[in-house]
Structure formats: C-alpha cells, structure tokens
C-alpha cells in the first residue's frame, strides 16, 4: 500500500466517517486515493480555519474526534487558530497536513513551513512522519492521545514522498507510549473525604466546567448536587452540564456570571470545582475570589490543574464522571436547617439580582431574540455561539430544564468559530436542530463556509445579532477605557439578506419585536440553512459584568431604570 | 511541595527527567518552559543505560508560577517518561568545566599548582596555552574559576550540572502499555 492509502485505511479503522479538508500540492497523493474510500465522507471547506472549527464542532457535538486535512505551508498554518481553539477547550481533533518531500524539508521549499514548530504550543502532541512504515502506528497513537485523558488536538505532518512510498503496513494492536499515562483511578479516600465535607459544610457550592460535559458526567453531577443539597453553577464552557431551571441551579459563574452565582461563590465556605481550570474569567481578581471558603475541593483529569491557579485542600485527579460516580454513594444528607438557611439566602440573592435587560426603548433587544430561540429549542437543540456579547447573551439566557449542549469557544475566544462549528455539529448530530448565534463581526470572519452549508443542505439556522459594531469591545471602551470608541464601528457591512441570497440560502431581516416570531417560524419550516439578520439595539450591553481588574463582589448590573 | 507548609519553597527547581530520544524533544521541553513563564538556568542532556532514552538535568526558575508546575507541566509532555524534582531531596550534583589558560613560564607552574589544589587536571598542553578541567558541585566549580582568574582565562566551557538523588536506588519507570 502507498502511504496515502495507509492514511485513509487507518482513518477508516479508527471509525472516522467525516473529514473536513482542503487539497493542495503536498497532500495530493492522499486526495488521489480518497475516492477509493467512500466511507470517508469529505467536506470541502472554503478556508482551512473553517475545517478546523468544523472538526471541533463535530467533536464537541458527538464526542468523537474530528478530522482535518490540509496541505503544507499556508494550508496547515490556516488551521492553527482552529487547533488553538480546540486545545484551549480540550477537544479531540486530529489534523493531517501534507509536508514537502523529506529531502526538501529545511530548504525553504515551495509552501514549506515548520508546521511542527508552529503547532507545538497549540496541540496536545504532534508528529512529523518521514518514513512510510511509521504512518499506521502514528495515526493510531494520534487518535489515542487526542481522545484519552484530557482530550486535545493532535497534528500529523506527513511528507509528500512518504505519502507516495509503499510498504506493507503493520497495524498496531497496542499503544506503546511510556510517557503517557492518561487513565487514573480516583483516590477513593479523598472522594469519601470530599463527600463528607460537602454534607458537613454550611454554605457549599459546586462549580462545574467543560470536563463534566466531556466526560458525560451530567447525571452524576445532578445526583451529587441533589443528594448533598448543594447549589451548583457552571463555567461558560460548562453551560449545559446542569439544568438552569433546577432549583439548585446557580447558572453561570465568572466575570459575566449571574449575580446570585457570584454572591454564592463569594460567601461559600466550601467550593467544589469539577472539570474546570479556574481561569481568570472565572475568578476575576484572584486574591478577592471566594474569600470565605475553608475547603476547596478540585476534581480534574489533568494533574497540572491542581494548584495551578487555586491550591485545593482536597485534590482528585480523575475524569468528572468517574469521580462524581465514585463519590455519590458516600455523599451524606446534610442537616436540613443549615442547608435551608443557605438555600433561602441564595433564593433571596436570586430575587435581588435577577437577569435583566432593557425593554421597550424602540430597539430590538438581543435577549428577546434569545428567549424566543430557546423557547423553540425545547431543551433539545444544539446551540453554537460565537465570541463576544452574543456568546454571553446566548449563555445567560440558556434556559434548559435538563442538561443540553451549548458549544462555544470559551478558552481561546475565537471570533468566527460559531458558524463552521455549527456545520460540524450538525454533521455529527443530524437528528438535532442546530442554532448558530453570532455577531456580525465574527460571522463575516468565516462566512465563506455558507457554501458548505448550502452544498450539504444543512439545517443550520444562523441567528445573527447585528449591532453594526464590535459590541463587546465597544462596551469595554465605554466602561473601562475612558469612553473612547476606537475602531469598533462596523456600519459598513454587507446586506446580509443579499449575502445569503448570493450564497444560495434564504435570508431575512428583522428590525422589530413583532417580527421575531414570524422569522423563527420561517427558519423552522424552511429546510436547509437560513440566515436571520436581527438588527439589534446598537447600545445593548452584557450585564452583569465585573469591571476589569476587580473582584467578583464588585459586579455591575443593569440599572433598574432601564429594565 | 505544597504551599500549605508555611515556608516559601525554593523558586529555583532542580529536576531530572527521562525522555524518549526523539527529534524535537528538547524543543518541546524548552518551548513549554518558555511558554509557561519559567526560565532555564541550566540544561544538560545525555544518554541513559537504556536505548532510546535520554536523561535531562534541568535547573529551572519557576517564574511567577506555583513551583510544582515545573514538574507537572513536564509530566504532561507525551515524550517525557519520568520526572523527579530533586530540589528538596538529598542529591548528588556534578558539573564539568574546561578552562583554557594563556600561561607560560613560571605563571604556568603557579597555575598548575592551583589546579592541583582543587583536584583538577591538566588535559592539554600547548606552547602558549594549557587546558585544565575540574568537576564538582556548582560551588566548587565557581571557586575553581575564581582561583584561576589571575591566570588569563581565554576560553571557558561548562557542562551545566547533572544530578541524581542520593541514597535510594533510582527507580526506572516501568514500561506501561495501554489499550
């Protein structure tokens, strides 16, 4: 078999059914063989960044690794932002890039770039393959590394002459990576201790991150929270891990989290952090964070997260589902009077600090759009958000009464992520309705992928929250940078209805509240992709928000006179 | 290692790591150290008694990070098999220095006497220069160089320390096969 055939055969053996890619000089041998492997359905993207985000969305929606093909040089480099996005959010992606011939590497040959060097900081691991005999083993290892432990992207750079060389492949039946030991059995005694501490605490809080969703531990989380009667919130990436309408829900935490969540975190005496990194967007000013906590419990699959930002008293290195499941039998029932007082206090904060938004000022409010969209999601649809105000509105107005799937670029904060990721999600889960929420700024960064949605007649509905500006940046400038509006005006944008028409999908424009429902009706009854250009209030802001550099106690809310 | 113990841990960490002898492993290690805001003070690499394995000895400043992050971030690298933080452990450390001195006549005799006093050796003799070597702990090498300073050091090469835990036998990481 040629190297190219071994690549495709190996992917088939790994159970791959989709590849998001783009051909070019250095991966043409693979593309020459591709038609012989009809089980590998290839999606021709319009830009390699789109391929990486599609693979990412595919992986997040399905739990199966997403696969990317790109050629050498610019092709491979265009995937870097997408790989970084997957890396920051621990998403399994395998990227296979073509490279110049082995004897030309290092000579600045045409479309040669040091893809290994460039991708090293944004991948869990990467490989350069210079021998055809190594391809089968390397691909097997790459899938193993991408999908086990804390998942992440792996890149394989294969020289073109290696793709053309031949050998009898040896398909490895085992993995020999002596430095990689991803499987941990959680320390049971620590989990028992954590379970006891949870029941004993007066004011406990659980915060859940992406790790709960990645491990499929939503049920275990609900069970532990309910049994220990512990109020539970999520990070931005953890949205969907815990039902927002659950009586114990604290909704989203962090510097744009809900008021009652932040109050609970700042007054808790025990904080259990599950499957999360405790990054700066969660803590805001770290020295002011969770000041009354006496017991920090941290559960995460990555040992390096222990004490990286917050030093826990009890650390459990394990995946969230396993740890929570093992903990559950030991969780005791707390004394009812102490817990009742804590829950009553939180209910009071919930009433004092509800989510609010500006009503009836003559402009379309983004929250009105989100509320209607979520009504139609019926606790089931996949929602993919972009980055910026749209992301936070979509996260905060998430109203699922049961765990669900909310996808966004939380760690890297990559504008332009949502639409290609929504395409990947829809391909992974064709039975699910998929809504893409984006601002106009991020949307145009990857809008060329509209052709992919049209070509594959994908039911991806684009909810464009169009305020003709870089809304989040504008809000920061207004509030934290002296009110100087600098380079945030996006009034010169395409007519999105015409843009949709040019790409071959229906688009409609909505400017008033009354038009929201008919627009969603139209989107739902129209097969294939639809774009709705919601012209929202150009001054709509995200609230609550913690001023930059301050602690969670200092969160700002929408002043009552606007609500 | 925990910061709960009260006394501030040493920010300068001495670690030894067994790694797979692959192209690019040093780039991975040094890239990670830069990326995480650490700083390499010294690094030495050499083969182990097992084929395909190299041993690194690193002295790393943990920078603004928690000190245990240096070991933990090294352990995350796929090709790093085993890491030991020797900072607080009883350890044996040796560094080699080669020094070229421009000395002739009676100055040469006095220089050689100084070398003898430190247990060093003359390893190369030329008409204008001699090359001497010494090995020992960092401080001993420093004192040696200080003593030779009057003798016109024209070239100096230091290996950086290699280190090993003293007393207990070195445990070889067991090969683990998953899947």
In brief:
The complex is a heterodimer of chains A (563) and B (179). With 563 residues, chain A is an alpha/beta fold.
Could you describe the 3D structure shown?
The complex is a heterodimer of chains A (563) and B (179). Chain A folds into three domains: 3-164, Thiamin diphosphate (ThDP)-binding fold, Pyr/PP domains (Rossmann fold), CATH 3.40.50.970; 188-352, Rossmann fold, CATH 3.40.50; 366-551, Thiamin diphosphate (ThDP)-binding fold, Pyr/PP domains (Rossmann fold), CATH 3.40.50. In chain A, 36% of the residues lie in helices and 16% in strands. The radius of gyration of chain A is 24 Å and the shape is globular. Chain B contains four helices and nine strands; from the N terminus they run E-H-E-E-H-E-E-H-E-E-H-E-E. In chain B, the strands form two sheets. In chain B, strands 5, 6, 7, 8 and 9 form a five-stranded antiparallel β-sheet that branches. Chain B is elongated, with a radius of gyration of 20 Å. Mean pLDDT of chain B is 89; it is low at 1-6 and 173-179. The chains are: A alpha/beta (563), B alpha+beta (179). Chains A and B meet through loops of A and helix 1, helix 2 and strand 4 of B.
What's the SSE blueprint?
The complex is a heterodimer of chains A (563) and B (179).
Chain A: H1 3-13, E1 18-21, H2 28-33, E2 41-44, H3 48-62, E3 66-70, H4 74-77, H5 80-88, E4 93-99, H6 115-119, E5 125-129, H7 135-147, E6 153-159, H8 160-164, H9 188-200, E7 204-208, H10 210-214, H11 218-228, E8 232-234, E9 249-252, H12 259-267, E10 270-274, H13 280-283, E11 295-300, E12 314-317, H14 320-327, H15 336-352, H16 366-377, E13 382-385, H17 389-396, E14 406-407, H18 418-428, E15 434-439, H19 440-443, H20 450-455, E16 460-466, H21 471-480, H22 496-503, E17 507-510, H23 516-525, E18 530-535
Parallel strand pairs in A: 1-2, 1-3, 3-4, 4-6, 5-6, 7-8, 7-10, 8-9, 10-11, 11-12, 13-14, 13-15, 15-16, 16-18, 17-18
Chain B: E1 12-20, H1 25-35, E2 39-47, E3 53-61, H2 68-76, E4 80-85, E5 91-101, H3 105-117, E6 121-125, E7 130-136, H4 138-148, E8 153-158, E9 162-165
Antiparallel strand pairs in B: 1-3, 1-4, 2-3, 5-7, 5-8, 5-9, 6-7
């Amino acid at each position: 078999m040629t190297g190219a055939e071994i690549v495709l055969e190996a992917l088939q053996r790994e159970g791959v059914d989709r590849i998001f890619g783009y051909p070019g000089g250095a991966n043409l041998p693979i593309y020459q063989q591709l038609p012989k492997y009809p089980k590998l359905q290839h999606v021709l993207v319009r830009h390699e960044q789109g391929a990486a985000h599609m693979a990412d969305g595919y992986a997040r929606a399905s739990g199966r690794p997403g696969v990317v093909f790109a050629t050498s040089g610019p092709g491979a480099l265009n995937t870097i932002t997408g790989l970084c996005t997957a890396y920051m959010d621990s998403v399994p992606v395998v990227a296979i890039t073509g490279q110049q011939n082995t004897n030309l590497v290092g000579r600045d040959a045409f479309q040669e770039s040091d893809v290994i060097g460039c991708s090293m900081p944004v991948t869990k691991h990467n490989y350069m393959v210079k021998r055809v005999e190594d391809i089968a083993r390397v691909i097997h290892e790459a899938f193993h590394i991408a999908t086990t432990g804390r998942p992440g992207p792996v890149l394989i750079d294969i020289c073109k002459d290696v793709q053309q060389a031949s050998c009898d492949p040896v398909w490895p039946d085992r993995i020999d990576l002596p430095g990689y030991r991803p499987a941990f059995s959680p320390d049971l005694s620590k989990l028992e201790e954590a379970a006891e501490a949870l029941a004993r605490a007066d004011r406990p809080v659980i915060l859940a991150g992406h790790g709960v969703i990645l491990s499929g531990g939503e049920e275990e989380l609900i069970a532990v929270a309910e049994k220990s009667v512990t109020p539970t919130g999520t990070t931005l990436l953890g949205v969907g891990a815990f039902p927002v309408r659950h009586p114990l829900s604290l909704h989203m935490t962090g510097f744009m989290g809900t008021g009652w969540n932040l109050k609970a975190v700042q007054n808790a005496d025990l904080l259990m952090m599950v499957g999360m990194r405790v990054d700066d967007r969660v803590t805001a000013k770290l020295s002011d964070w969770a000041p009354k906590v006496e017991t920090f419990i941290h559960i995460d699959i990555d040992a390096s997260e222990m004490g990286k930002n917050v030093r826990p008293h009890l650390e459990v290195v394990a995946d969230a589902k396993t740890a929570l499941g093992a903990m559950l039998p030991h969780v005791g029932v707390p004394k009812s009077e102490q817990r009742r007082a804590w829950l009553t206090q939180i209910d009071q904060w919930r009433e004092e600090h509800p989510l609010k938004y500006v009503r009836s000022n003559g402009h379309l409010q983004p929250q009105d759009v989100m509320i209607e969209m979520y009504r139609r999601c019926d606790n089931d649809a996949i929602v993919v958000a972009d980055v910026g105000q749209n992301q936070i509105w979509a996260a905060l107005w998430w109203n699922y009464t049961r765990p669900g799937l909310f996808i966004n670029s939380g760690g890297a904060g990559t504008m332009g992520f949502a639409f290609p990721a929504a395409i990947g999600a829809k391909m992974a889960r064709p039975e699910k309705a998929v809504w893409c929420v984006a601002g106009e700024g991020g949307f145009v960064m990857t809008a060329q992928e509209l052709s992919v949605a049209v070509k594959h007649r994908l039911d991806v509905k684009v909810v464009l929250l169009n305020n003709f500006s870089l809304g989040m940046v504008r809000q920061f400038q207004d509030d934290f940078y002296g009110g100087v509006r600098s380079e945030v005006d996006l009034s010169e944008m395409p007519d999105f209805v015409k843009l949709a028409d040019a790409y071959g999908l229906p688009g409609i424009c909505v400017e008033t509240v009354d038009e929201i429902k008919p627009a969603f009706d139209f989107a739902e009854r129209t097969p294939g992709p639809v774009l709705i250009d919601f012209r929202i209030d150009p001054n709509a802001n995200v609230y609550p928000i913690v001023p930059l550099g301050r602690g969670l106690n200092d969160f700002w809310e929408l002043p009552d006179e606007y609500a | 290692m925990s910061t709960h113990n009260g006394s501030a841990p040493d920010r300068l960490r001495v670690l030894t790591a067994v790694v797979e002898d692959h192209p690019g492993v040093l780039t991975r290690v040094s890239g990670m150290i830069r990326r995480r805001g650490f700083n390499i003070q010294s690094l030495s690499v050499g083969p182990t008694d097992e084929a395909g394995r190299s041993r690194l000895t690193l002295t790393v400043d943990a920078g603004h990070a928690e000190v245990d992050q240096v070991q933990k971030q090294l352990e995350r690298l796929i090709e790093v098999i085993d890491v030991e933080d020797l900072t607080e452990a009883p350890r044996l450390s040796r560094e080699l220095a080669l020094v070229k001195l421009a000395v002739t006549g009676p100055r040469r005799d006095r220089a050689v006497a100084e070398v003898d006093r430190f247990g060093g050796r003359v390893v190369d003799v030329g008409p204008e220069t001699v090359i001497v070597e010494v090995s020992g702990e960092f401080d001993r090498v420093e004192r040696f160089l200080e003593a030779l300073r009057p003798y016109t050091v024209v070239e100096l090469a230091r290996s950086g320390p290699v280190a090993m835990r003293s007393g207990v036998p070195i445990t070889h990481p067991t090969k683990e096969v998953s899947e």
